[in-house]
Design a protein that fits this description.
Elements: E1 2-8, E2 11-17, H1 23-30, E3 49-52, E4 55-58, H2 64-67, E5 71-73, H3 86-94, H4 103-116, H5 122-128, H6 139-152
Helix pairs in contact: 3-6
Bound molecules: FE2/S2 (inorganic) cluster (2 copies).
Length: 159
């Protein structure tokens, strides 16, 4: 057990955790940031997706020691002063969720996608969102949401 200082959503957060604990476990169980979901725990579903220095990673497959020193963004860090990001707003507007369990991971992956590729084609959206699973089968509306977000901001939906 050691004290690590994580940079999460713009704040320095000290946490006592073994370095080989997953980032997902630290976020949920030690820091109560439960917006990031535990789905499979095996890197297969993407429910646990967060951003590390702007890149989408599966936090169940990331050791907390690997995340120390990086800028970590979770779904809790997107909205600012009550304003949703273009990606979050587009998910609401498109109704791109049913149970909502996959949604934070989808939003994080879409945020990274649009930051890298502000105007993706439909095929690019499908390919790049492919690592995230929606068991409710809301895929058409998720693709629609990403397209809406790409059109709603000159930055392509990313803050
Ligand atoms: S919980 Fe991490 S990929 Fe499924
Ligand atoms: S909305 Fe239920 S898993 Fe995607």
């Amino acid at each position: 057990m050691s004290t690590l200082v994580l940079n999460i959503n713009g704040a320095k957060m000290p946490v006592d955790a073994p370095g080989d604990e997953t980032l997902l476990s630290v976020l949920r169980n030690r820091l109560a940031l439960t917006g990031t979901k535990y789905g499979c725990g095996e890197g297969e579903c993407g429910a646990c997706t967060v951003l590390l220095d702007g890149k989408a990673v599966k936090s169940c497959q990331t050791l907390v020691s690997e995340a120390a020193g990086a800028k970590i963004t979770t779904v809790e860090g997107l909205e600012q002063n009550g304003r949703l990001t273009p990606v979050q707003q587009a998910f609401v507007d498109a109704g791109a969720y049913q149970c909502g369990f996959c949604t934070s991971g989808m939003v994080m992956r879409a945020t990274a996608l649009l930051a890298a590729t502000p105007r993706p084609t439909q095929a690019e959206i499908v390919a790049r969102m492919n690592g995230n699973v929606c068991r409710c089968g809301t895929y058409p509306r998720i693709v629609d949401a990403v397209q809406r977000a790409s059109m709603s901001s000159t930055k392509g939906g990313a803050r």
